[in-house]
């Protein structure tokens, strides 16, 4: 049996931090964990939202049950329903056996929905219904299944903006954020950097059976960084320097990600064309021809094949645009001939 989660000098369970901001988080976790309230954990990537979810689960009355996590942003839209609710054998091509989704596997415990704002809106509607009723059907199933779970969700987005941008249903936001919990970024608690760095170094030392240490200048350098990637970036930085160090991790051993702005690269050719609502049909046709010619790098035979018209028709269109240019002084696509340069028909 795992040791009980307790508040200690350096944090709460596996969550480390001595800063006032983190102590406030620890207090909120201890308040909400014993309840059945759904929790929405908010914070930037790398702050440790999954560790917070684990801590809530381990301090809850469901600690003896399973903690099942699913990243809603890493699953294709076509598969997320089956992953959430499971499916019956033969319900779709490739379903050679029945499969329990995360809602079934988490029964009696906690379901952690990471990056919930990345879930398709139509699936959010179904998720809301399941959260409200506690009942669902497998894909292809006819038997209603009752679930007994506690839901903890997380996102790295501003949930209010996500609702405004139609990335999150407003009713689902209120259902999930019964108890919102914000995890501060590492730059807002620089005093926690040495504690975390020493923890990561101790873990690496144990794993390699060595006793490497930080130089004072290295610790000072760590404390002055902004840590855009938060705790995850700090951990990776310590590990990179650990690999390079013989005995002492020093500043000149730190391998960091490049901070310069990369040179701009040529934009990829468009795979489509934007036609504003209200455009005339001939304008839309011309835009399509121009973009297709650009895509085909001026190869008119290839462009005609892509457009599904004859080469003669394409040449007639281009000559027509050239005549219009003479009359209206409108700019041409780079592969459309100028005035007086009619395109000869292929022989």
From TrEMBL:
<dbReference type="Pfam" id="PF25601">
    <property type="entry name" value="AAA_lid_14"/>
</dbReference>
<dbReference type="GO" id="GO:0006355">
    <property type="term" value="P:regulation of DNA-templated transcription"/>
</dbReference>
<keyword id="KW-0547">Nucleotide-binding</keyword>
<dbReference type="Pfam" id="PF00158">
    <property type="entry name" value="Sigma54_activat"/>
</dbReference>
<dbReference type="InterPro" id="IPR003593">
    <property type="entry name" value="AAA+_ATPase"/>
</dbReference>
<dbReference type="InterPro" id="IPR027417">
    <property type="entry name" value="P-loop_NTPase"/>
</dbReference>
<keyword id="KW-0067">ATP-binding</keyword>
<feature type="domain" description="Sigma-54 factor interaction">
    <location>
        <begin position="15"/>
        <end position="243"/>
    </location>
</feature>
<keyword id="KW-0805">Transcription regulation</keyword>
<keyword id="KW-0804">Transcription</keyword>
<dbReference type="GO" id="GO:0043565">
    <property type="term" value="F:sequence-specific DNA binding"/>
</dbReference>
<dbReference type="GO" id="GO:0005524">
    <property type="term" value="F:ATP binding"/>
</dbReference>
<dbReference type="InterPro" id="IPR058031">
    <property type="entry name" value="AAA_lid_NorR"/>
</dbReference>
<dbReference type="Pfam" id="PF02954">
    <property type="entry name" value="HTH_8"/>
</dbReference>
<dbReference type="InterPro" id="IPR009057">
    <property type="entry name" value="Homeodomain-like_sf"/>
</dbReference>
<dbReference type="InterPro" id="IPR002078">
    <property type="entry name" value="Sigma_54_int"/>
</dbReference>
<dbReference type="InterPro" id="IPR025662">
    <property type="entry name" value="Sigma_54_int_dom_ATP-bd_1"/>
</dbReference>
<feature type="region of interest" description="Disordered">
    <location>
        <begin position="326"/>
        <end position="347"/>
    </location>
</feature>
<dbReference type="InterPro" id="IPR002197">
    <property type="entry name" value="HTH_Fis"/>
</dbReference>
<protein>
    <recommendedName>
        <fullName>Sigma-54 factor interaction domain-containing protein</fullName>
    </recommendedName>
</protein>
């Amino acid at each position: 049996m795992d040791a009980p989660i307790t508040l200690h000098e350096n944090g709460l369970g596996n969550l480390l931090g001595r800063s006032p901001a983190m102590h406030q988080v620890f207090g909120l976790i201890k308040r909400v964990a014993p309840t059945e309230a759904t929790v929405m954990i908010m914070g930037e990537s790398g702050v440790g939202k999954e560790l917070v979810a684990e801590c809530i689960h381990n301090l809850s009355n469901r600690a003896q049950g399973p903690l099942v996590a699913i990243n809603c942003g890493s699953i294709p839209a076509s598969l997320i329903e089956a992953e959430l609710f499971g499916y019956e054998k033969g319900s779709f091509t490739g379903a050679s056996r029945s499969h329990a989704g995360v809602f079934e596997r988490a029964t009696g415990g906690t379901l952690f929905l990471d990056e919930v704002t990345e879930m398709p809106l139509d699936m959010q509607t179904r998720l809301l219904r399941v959260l409200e009723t506690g009942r669902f059907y497998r894909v292809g199933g006819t038997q209603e299944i009752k679930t007994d779970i506690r839901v903890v969700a997380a996102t790295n987005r501003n949930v209010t903006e996500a609702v405004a941008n139609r990335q999150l249903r407003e009713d689902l936001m209120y259902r999930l954020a019964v108890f919102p919990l914000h995890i501060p970024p590492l730059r807002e608690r620089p005093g926690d950097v040495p504690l975390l760095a020493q923890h990561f170094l101790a873990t690496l030392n144990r794993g390699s059976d060595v006793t490497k240490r930080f130089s004072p200048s290295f610790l000072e350098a760590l404390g002055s960084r902004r840590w855009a990637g938060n705790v995850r970036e700090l951990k990776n930085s310590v590990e990179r320097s650990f690999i390079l160090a013989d005995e002492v991790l020093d500043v000149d051993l730190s391998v960091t990600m490049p901070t310069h702005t990369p040179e701009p690269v040529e934009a990829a050719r468009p795979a489509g064309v934007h036609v504003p609502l209200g455009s005339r049909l001939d304008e839309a046709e011309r835009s399509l021809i121009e973009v297709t010619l650009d895509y085909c790098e001026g190869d008119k035979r290839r462009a005609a094949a892509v457009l599904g018209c004859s080469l003669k028709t394409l040449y007639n269109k281009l000559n027509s645009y050239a005549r219009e240019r003479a009359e209206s002084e409108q700019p041409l696509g780079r592969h459309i001939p100028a005035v007086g340069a009619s395109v000869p028909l292929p022989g």
